[in-house]
Structure formats: structure tokens, C-alpha cells
């Protein structure tokens, strides 16, 4: 197996997973990250079996088990009345049905585990404080230009460049896609609290999902059960700036004035809320020549299916699986990656959009949604997404 020199632009979950998976295949990796340090405040994420399976295959299972929680189910409630609507089986059902767990984790803890693995891998070099400016695809190499913190510009050639640089990806623009991501009319508020501050009826191990016409709320325990992660979605005609804009709790509570008492009590607990706006972008090409995209750079996914991180992890594994080749065949390998991933990520992106509409149904449509959930039952609700959770890489 020939070793390739590969640059990964971005040291988020997808970029770190890609670097680790590619290094395990014998390649030499340079990760280029614009930040000078790593901070993730108040953010949880879900690792469904299609993602946890890959992380365990990379040897991270033992480290993850020390920080994850494994909710036994999702309890779905009506946001206004608090009455149960239905449930989704997780826990033992997921492990038995799909051969891997459904975990929830603090993003910072997952990132730390990935960073530790990357830093202990000699063939991976992590370069911080560098901003990717351009990527030029050539016949025999891909040239990446970045700018240092003091304004110096440097260029380096690689056998391949992977863009894991997020929804506003510079690498995607280098592939010729200069369209701006589209704002989808909603803002996500996120916070974490100590678990002992949650209302007793909401402090269990399960994930809570509250559905209403004007928004919805998700909460689940993270950090080994010590904290509760809370995400509340509100409608807004205009976006907020950045990924961590401060929000006033009283403004959020005003939007949830008609919520059930237990939910309002939960939403009143956080001392700090951070907000980010929900954008997505049509899936087009995931690769061209010696340049490929993964995660939000390729296919930003709304959080209504809890698959943003999972799809980036899948992309990383898929890239590593095709790049067992010499430098001359990189364009062909990346074309294979594109053809393998495009339909799947498009389907997931559309399913997430549809879930957003379903979550906010009211009237007769909401009544029909609730009846379907009750009829399917917890295991039926989980099995609806067998196509998603049972993902395996092509041989």
C-alpha cells in the first residue's frame, strides 16, 4: 500500500476522524486549523449506530465509554400539555438491532478523545492558527495556500486535499461552488446544566423531545450523566451572527410561554444560552480531481435528525476506504467516494428537513403525526430509520 500525503482543512469532528482513519491506512496527514485552541461550550451531540460503529472500529470505544451516556429511549411529548405522544427505542434495542450503541456525548469530550488519538499518531501533523485561502487542483498534485496569524502566506503541495472546514467552506469554493448556504428560518439555543438542577421528572436517563407548532426542544444527559444538554429551536425571520451568539433566557422563555410547566422550569435553569442559526446547502459535488469535501463543507444537515456529526464520521471512513492507492489514482478514488456518498447524504439531508416540518405540525396534521407514532410504538419508530443506522461501508 502506497502512502499518500494528504491535507485536511479543519480540525472539527469530521476532520479529526478523517485524519485518524487515513493515518490508520498508512498515509501521512497534515491537519490545518484556523483556530489557535479548542473550546466547545455547552454542546452535546448524538452518535447513532452508524457513527459509533466507525469510532469503535478506530479503537476509540474504551475512551468513549468513559464519557458517553446511552439513553434507553426518546420520550416524545406535546410541548404545550406535556402529555406523552410516543417513544423511540434506543439502548439495548439499538445494540441488538444494529450491532452498535446509540450514544450521546459532549462535543468537547469527543473532540478531546479524537485529538488525543491524532496527537499520538506519528504520521499526523496538526498545524494551528492557519487559515486556508485557496486550493488549486493540478494534474499531479493539489496545492493548498494558507495564511498564518502574522499574515504570512505559505503554499504546500499534497497528493490530496480534504475540505472539512464547515458550512462556509473555503475548500468548497475552490471546487467552483460559490453559492452561499441558505438560512432556514430557525435559531437553535443551546445550554448545559448540572443534572441535579433539572426538574425531577426530566432528570432521567432518557432523551426528551417536545414538539410544538412554533418550535421544539431536545434534552439528554451528557458527560457520563453529570450534565443535561438542552437545545431549543425557535423561529426567526433573520439569523444571528456566528456559532455562539449569547442569548437572553427571558427571550427564550417568552417564546415558550405556553409550554408545559416542567419544560418551562427546565428552560429557566441555564445561566447562559448560546445561539446559532440553521443553514443548509444543496448537495452537489463531493469531490473534484484531487480535492474532496466532507461533513458540513459538503452537505450541511439540519439538526432535526441528529445526523450532522454522524454523516461527517461516515464521510471520513468512506474517504479512508477508497484512498488505498498510489498518487496517480487519487482522482479516480475520490470520484468513487463522490458516487458512493452523494445519494446517501442527499437522502439524509432531505429526511432532516422533513423532520423539521413534522416536528412543528399542528391541528389535524399534528393529530395524525401523533397517531402514527403511537401505532408504530418505540421499536417501530426506531426501525423506520434502519436504512440510516445500519450503514456499512461497501466492501
UniProtKB/TrEMBL annotation:
<dbReference type="GO" id="GO:0004497">
    <property type="term" value="F:monooxygenase activity"/>
</dbReference>
<keyword id="KW-0560">Oxidoreductase</keyword>
<dbReference type="InterPro" id="IPR050493">
    <property type="entry name" value="FAD-dep_Monooxygenase_BioMet"/>
</dbReference>
<dbReference type="Pfam" id="PF01494">
    <property type="entry name" value="FAD_binding_3"/>
</dbReference>
<dbReference type="GO" id="GO:0071949">
    <property type="term" value="F:FAD binding"/>
</dbReference>
<keyword id="KW-0503">Monooxygenase</keyword>
<protein>
    <submittedName>
        <fullName>Salicylate hydroxylase</fullName>
    </submittedName>
</protein>
<feature type="domain" description="FAD-binding">
    <location>
        <begin position="5"/>
        <end position="351"/>
    </location>
</feature>
<keyword id="KW-0274">FAD</keyword>
<dbReference type="InterPro" id="IPR036188">
    <property type="entry name" value="FAD/NAD-bd_sf"/>
</dbReference>
<keyword id="KW-0285">Flavoprotein</keyword>
<dbReference type="InterPro" id="IPR002938">
    <property type="entry name" value="FAD-bd"/>
</dbReference>
Amino acid at each position: 500500500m502506497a502512502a499518500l500525503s494528504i491535507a485536511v482543512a479543519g480540525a472539527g469532528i469530521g476532520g479529526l476522524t478523517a485524519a485518524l482513519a487515513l493515518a490508520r491506512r498508512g498515509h501521512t496527514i497534515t491537519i490545518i486549523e484556523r483556530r489557535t485552541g479548542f473550546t466547545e461550550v455547552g454542546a452535546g451531540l448524538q452518535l447513532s449506530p452508524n457513527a459509533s460503529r466507525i469510532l469503535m472500529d478506530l479503537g476509540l470505544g474504551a475512551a468513549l465509554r468513559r464519557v458517553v451516556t446511552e439513553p434507553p429511549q426518546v420520550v416524545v411529548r406535546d410541548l404545550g400539555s406535556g402529555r406523552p405522544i410516543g417513544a423511540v427505542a434506543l439502548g439495548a434495542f439499538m445494540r441488538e438491532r444494529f450491532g452498535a450503541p446509540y450514544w450521546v456525548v459532549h462535543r468537547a469530550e469527543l473532540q478531546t478523545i479524537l485529538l488525543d488519538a491524532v496527537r499520538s499518531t506519528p504520521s499526523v501533523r496538526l498545524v494551528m492558527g492557519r487559515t486556508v485561502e485557496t486550493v488549486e487542483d493540478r494534474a499531479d498534485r493539489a496545492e493548498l495556500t494558507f495564511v498564518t496569524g502574522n499574515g504570512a502566506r505559505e503554499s504546500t503541495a499534497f497528493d490530496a486535499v480534504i475540505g472539512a472546514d464547515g458550512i462556509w467552506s473555503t475548500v468548497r469554493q475552490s471546487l467552483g461552488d460559490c453559492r452561499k448556504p441558505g438560512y432556514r428560518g430557525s435559531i437553535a439555543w443551546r445550554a448545559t446544566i448540572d443534572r441535579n438542577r433539572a426538574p425531577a421528572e426530566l432528570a432521567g436517563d432518557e432523551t426528551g423531545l417536545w414538539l410544538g407548532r412554533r418550535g421544539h426542544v431536545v434534552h439528554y444527559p451528557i458527560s457520563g450523566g453529570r450534565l443535561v444538554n438542552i437545545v431549543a429551536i425557535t423561529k426567526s425571520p433573520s439569523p444571528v451572527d456566528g456559532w455562539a451568539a449569547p442569548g437572553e433566557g427571558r427571550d427564550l422563555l417568552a417564546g415558550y410561554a405556553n409550554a408545559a410547566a416542567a419544560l418551562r422550569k427546565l428552560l429557566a435553569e441555564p445561566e447562559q444560552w448560546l445561539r446559532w442559526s440553521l443553514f443548509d446547502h444543496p448537495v452537489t459535488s463531493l469531490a473534484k480531481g484531487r480535492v474532496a469535501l466532507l461533513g458540513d463543507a459538503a452537505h450541511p444537515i439540519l439538526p432535526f435528525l441528529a445526523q450532522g456529526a454522524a454523516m461527517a464520521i461516515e464521510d471520513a471512513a468512506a474517504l479512508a476506504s477508497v484512498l488505498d492507492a498510489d498518487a496517480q489514482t487519487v482522482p479516480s478514488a475520490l470520484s468513487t467516494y463522490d458516487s458512493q456518498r452523494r445519494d446517501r447524504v442527499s437522502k439524509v439531508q432531505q429526511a432532516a428537513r422533513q423532520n423539521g416540518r413534522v416536528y412543528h405540525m399542528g391541528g389535524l396534521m399534528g393529530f395524525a403525526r401523533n397517531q402514527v407514532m403511537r401505532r408504530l410504538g418505540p421499536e417501530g419508530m426506531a426501525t423506520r430509520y434502519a436504512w440510516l443506522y445500519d450503514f456499512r461501508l461497501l466492501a
